[in-house]
Amino acid sequence: MPLTDSQRAHLERRLREERDRVRAIVNEIVDQRSRATERDESGDLSAVPFHPADLGSDRQDTDVDLSNATRASAELAEIEAALERLYADPDSYGRDEASGAEIPFERLDVIPWARTRI
């Protein structure tokens, strides 16, 4: 059964909510990464960490932040693409891109940018 107008409106709201949520995540990561380092904030003139393990911890934090930013950016692109599909051809939104079969509303409610039934 095709999506009703009220279901499409609900999914549009969900997509907009998810877009705002993911944008906030990306913005937070960018803000955190662009702040001054602890060394700058403390006024420490030495670039040598207090302990060698600090280098590993700092690198791991950077890697996690970059990984999260990459994942969130990809998710944001999927959300934007879903909104474009919804606006460009509302009747085709919610259909599996490979088979053309309808994606269940329950799945779209959880992942409104879903491109497939599974």
What does the model show?
This protein has one domain (about 5-35, about 60-110). The longest helix is centred in the middle third of the chain and has 37 residues, at about 50-90. The protein is an all-alpha fold and about 120 residues long. The model has no long low-confidence stretch (mean pLDDT about 85). The chain has helices at about 5-35, 40, 50-90, 105-110. It starts with a helix and ends in an 8-residue tail after the last helix. Helices cover about 65% and strands about 0% of the residues. The protein has 4 helices and no strands.
Write the layout of secondary structure elements.
Layout: H1 5-34, H2 38-42, H3 52-88, H4 105-110
What is the N-to-C succession of helices and strands? HHHH
Name the average pLDDT.
86
> Judging from the principal axes of the Cα atoms, what is the shape?
elongated
Number of helices: 4
The class by helix and strand makeup works out as mainly alpha
List unreliable stretches of 5+ residues.
Answer: none
Characterize the main sheet.
Answer: none
The helix content is: 55-70%
β-strand number = 0
**Strand residue content:** under 5%
Q: Distance between termini?
A: 17 Å
* Total of domains: 1
